Amino acid sequence: MGLVPFTRGVFTCLGVHARKRAGLPAAAACLRGNNNKYSQSADSHDPGKLVCYPLPHRALLKIHGTDTSPFLQGLITNDMGLLEEPGNAAAMYAHMLNVQGRTLYDVMLYRMKEAEGLGVFLECDTTVHDSVLRHLRVYKIRRKVSISPCPELSVWAVLSLQNRPDQEAGQPELSAPEKALVWEADPRTSQMGWRLVLQRETDPLDLIVPCEKGDTEEYQKHRYRIGVPEGVKDLPPGVALPLESNLVFMQGISFSKGCYIGQELTARTHHTGVVRKRLMPVRLSSPPRGLQGETLLQTQSGKAAGKHRAGVGELGLSLIRTAHAKEMLTLKCSDDTTVTLEASVPDWWPKDVKVI
User: Fold this and answer.
1) Cα–Cα distance, 252 to 107 (Å, whole number)
2) What coarse category fits the chief subcellular location reported for this protein (predicted)?
3) Residues 90-149: tens digit of each pLDDT
């Protein structure tokens, strides 16, 4: 079973290049393609059409108190100072790592509108909500912080489904902004729209006009189409490495903030400039059946090429060796059928290149 041949010119480089980004003193580099056939939203959508997607797979914790910033500074990959500086965005992406430098949890931090000192909402995968809470409490010690779950709140993604993903839409105005606890641009990439946090009884359609409600699965397909990981299926706890997961490209790491758990391996990998595998969006020849966790990928000659992580239908994310990223790859399903897949380079990855 075959696919359309891999688009010529998809890759202009395979490598790593350190560069500075706004708000992050240093960031690493990229693989970059100049043609991505399926990283765009469906062409049938009207330009500027707004859709609100409920995210029941994401949960919130509230962290506040005078020691909030130094407490979180030692636990996350990003710099808490960015949330404290006036004029900076009030949303930040980060990972929490284990001592071996592997990702435990991917989180989003939102500065609370009104709090003594710095208060934040922490968004995480619902399935690890309790684990994140325990993890934070282990390191709380005598810090003057309060940590509590927020079951009364709901998380929404708001996307402007435009024909061209390189066109950044302006943030929609809310009819009742005081009802939004969080209303911020998604810090990972502009193609992920905005994050909205509300009381559960509040309907986002009452705040955003015109807007329509979308299905959560369509949100997941959009993520996989453009190659943005989220949650434990895409980033298995204790398995995924932050730089292989493109944390740099999503403005999720600071290389100048100082020590945090897992920092040593991450910094060493960054400074060597070698990332041999990348988490990439893939399109499969047919929806794979019966996959449990990571599944081995092979080249057509039988060489190991990486692992398929997760997906919806024919779209997904795979950790792929960059040396084989231009090739047609295969994976074997639980019923012994073989599915082929091809990888693509997201449009939102940095354009700066350094050829290996």
Assistant:
1) 9
2) mitochondrion
3) 999 999 999 999 999 999 999 998 766 689 999 999 999 999 999 999 999 999 999 999
